[in-house]
Amino acid sequence: MNGKLISTRFRLPGILAVLAVLVVSVIGAASVQQPESAAPAGEFSAERAIAELRGFATEPRPMGSAAADRAREHLVERLRAEGLQVEVQSSLGAYAATGLATFGQVDNVVATLPGTAPTGTVLLAAHYDSAGVGPGASDDGASVAAMLETVRALRESGPLRNDLVLLISDGEEDGSLGAGVFAREHPLAARGGVVLNWEARGVDGPSLMFETTEDNARLIEVFADSVEHPRGDSSMVEMYRLMPNSTDFTDLAEAGFAGLNSAYLEGSSRYHTASDTIANLNPGSLQHQGENMLALTRAFGGADLADLRADHDLVYFRALGLLITYPDAVVLPLALLNALLLVGAVVLARYRRMISLPRTLLSALSALVPIAVAVVLAQELWSLLVAVRPDYDLMNGLLHRPLAFLLALAALTATVLIGWYLALRSRLGPTALALGALTWPTAAGIACAFIAPGAAFVFTVPALAGALGILLAMFFPRWSAIAIAAAAAVAAMVVPVVARTVFNGMGLALGGATAVLIVLFGLFLLPLGETLLPDRALSRRSAVMAVSTALAATVALVLSGLAIDQFDAQHPRRSHLAYVLDADTGTASWVSAEAKPTEWTAQFVGSRNTEALPPGYARGQLWTGQARPLAVEGPRVTGTRTGDTTNLHVSSPRGARSVVLRVDQPITEVTARLPGDAPVPLQVSGTRTATWPGEIRFRDLPPEGVAISFRTRGGQVRVTAIDETRGLAGAPGYLPRPADLEAGTREDGDLIAVTRTYRF
User: Fold this and answer.
1) In contact, 657 and 725? CB cutoff 8 Å
2) Distance from C-alpha of 172 to C-alpha of 241, rounded to nearest angstrom
3) Measured between alpha carbons, how far is 91 from 105 in angstroms, rounded to an integer?
4) What is the value of pTM for the model shown?
5) Cα(73)–Cα(170) distance, rounded to whole angstroms?
6) CA dist., res. 198 & res. 539, Å (int)
7) Confidence of residue 37 (pLDDT cuts 50, 70, 90)
8) Strand ranges (DSSP E) for 593-635?
9) CB 726, CB 575: distance < 8 Å
10) Strands 208-212 and 258-264, sheet pairing
11) CA 85 to CA 120: how far, in whole Å?
12) If you ran DSSP here, which 8-state letter would residue 749 be given?
């Protein structure tokens, strides 16, 4: 009972089928949008958008900085020049996370272009603030520039039916503070409508529509009909709904807007770094994002927005350039049909004496082995890379040149699959292994139908095609190669696209997620792989050679990746350094969170001793070094404690625009109030990890200070106040970084931090 689905008599068609499936895989995964060199006046032009970008995105502009003020003034001037009604919405933003409360003064730019016969509002949203260490040309300057270019194109082509509102928000990098203020206070937010939010998590790649509000059927229909080159799929929607991540879209959706969230995310090693520059931005990515923005604005701007209501989601994904959609109500029936076809294939194979049921059951159980082993080895691969090259530690798995490592991950997975398959092929039979391999994606499709319907297609569609292909191969042996190849081609159109997105989004640090998809893709290809193997069992020597070859390819690709992904001025390594002054003791320290200090960082730190650091300052394992103290006054905190409530007034005599309060007890309710304004409360749960359990941040601290109160359990409470200023140039003994080094993404780096500890 070891029958093959494809006989060696049809080896040549089978080999050609393998090549065809490989071509389909490559074509399916490739999806870079190229820019138009000279777009007509009424269309989007990346060239014109980049010219806009140069006007405000050439320097870091974190919330509350002078650079942010300059960018905001420039944007207000440009929007008014385009004839829009512009206002600056100023208020106190608030955001809560685990053990953390963040507040800040936000200044949103809100611009309106009235429609001719509005049925509602179309809200374009992006943020103008950047991370503290980089100019944020992509995140999110490119989207803001695309909004300006979209407005220009709309003015050329005529007015919209619906009102168009541009929200260029402040404070997104600190917890979507500006979007929260708009959603909470602005009259336009109360009207609701459709929101199109635009983001970037890299500097390259296509614009992916990765998040929607619930009941998105009509929104997806408009997206499919209006966007020329749609990218993204509903598995991303489901993953994002399950993750704790958020963008401005989150606050706007909670305020009642229906809408879509888009971003490009390749070249993510530049994300939140000094390398997020106009020079590193791929104009093709901006072109694709801008084309989608203009197309969707026109489509929703001319639609009856009252007609966009739906009571269900659509599943959507791309296959060879086409966007395939179907209602979520079809997901479970498709998954059950997949299971029925698989059972039918098992029954027919048993009837044809190609399998036995016990062997097929063992095949299904054994298929868990390559899945689990591939995940473990993928994670160990990243640990190995960090051990060999400690500079990778601060990159969070998002490397400058990751292609060789992605191929190494695929080769490593292939090694596991080949070893598993050849070890069991003669014992259980190729048909039993092929059918058993389909068990888990079939089960995953059924589970997703209940948990995450939009992601079920990743498993159900190729598994259904695989079961159908096996059935047809058994019914029509002469055409078995074509039937099996067609089934494999379906998997090739679906799985590599999703695997590429997962890898670009999560990187090597979470390589196990990509490995799962790669190993599932390999399981779908098992019947086709039989065209390369003889009918008889392979000798042990041949099997060992096959596994050794795949393993050697893995090692060669890892070594190639290390050789190719060298650091230089264009592809810098990362470092982390801060200057910390304890104003209570007059002791100053250099602090670094690097796993192994770079040669530059080692000039400042060399000890693991953190005893000289202020109480509550340390977060995680740190390197330290003695520094010369600055002659500055620390943050000033006055207040009282009554019962479980601590009322404070916090200010910075040295004029720092950011302050952090570390609290030695878990905090619950936290309230901030600016002079003359109403208090803004937050509910906080949980505790911070690897540091004191409670933390309160205030961005854009006014000179007169801010009132902050918080609740903890009774008794004495210690508070370490840290006021922060950006940049290290003013720190005694500081030496500039070399050209091949840049600041890491950890938020407490490249700061002069001055602390005082208080007891209440």
Assistant:
1) yes
2) 19
3) 6
4) 0.94
5) 13
6) 56
7) very low
8) 623-627
9) no
10) antiparallel
11) 17
12) S
Cβ-proximal residues to 712 (8 Å cutoff; 6+ apart), any chain: 644, 646, 663, 665, 666, 667, 668, 694
CB 710 within 8 A of CB 694: yes
Average pLDDT taken over every residue of the chain: 93
Identify the three-state secondary structure at position 617. coil
Distance from C-alpha of 754 to C-alpha of 632, rounded to nearest angstrom: 8
In 393-510, which residue ranges form alpha helices assigned H by DSSP? 403-428, 430-437, 439-451, 457-475, 480-506
Q: Tokens 């489509």 sit at which residue? A: 299
Angle of the 357-366 helix axis to the 331-351 helix axis, nearest 10: 130
How far apart are alpha carbons 528 and 14 in whole angstroms? 7
Residues 12-26: pLDDT tens digits? Answer: 665 666 666 666 666
Tokens 């949103």 map to which residue? 108
Contact indicator for 99, 667 with CB cutoff of 8 Å: yes
Collapsed DSSP state (helix, strand, coil) of residue 60? coil
Q: Could you tell me the two tokens for 279?
A: 């020079």
Query: Do 688 and 714 touch, CB atoms closer than 8 A?
Result: no
Which residues sit opposite 90 in a β-bridge? 107
CA distance 266 to 296: 22
CB 239 within 8 A of CB 172: no
On whether the CB atoms of residues 236 and 501 are closer than 8 A, the answer is yes
Report residue 574 as tokens.
């990362």
DSSP run (H or E) holding 757? strand 751-759
Enumerate the H helices of 507-539 as residue ranges: 511-524, 526-529
pLDDT over 60 at 525, yes or no: yes
| Percentages of the chain per state (helix, strand, coil), in multiples of 5 | 45, 20, 35
Contact 528, 484 (CB under 8 A): yes
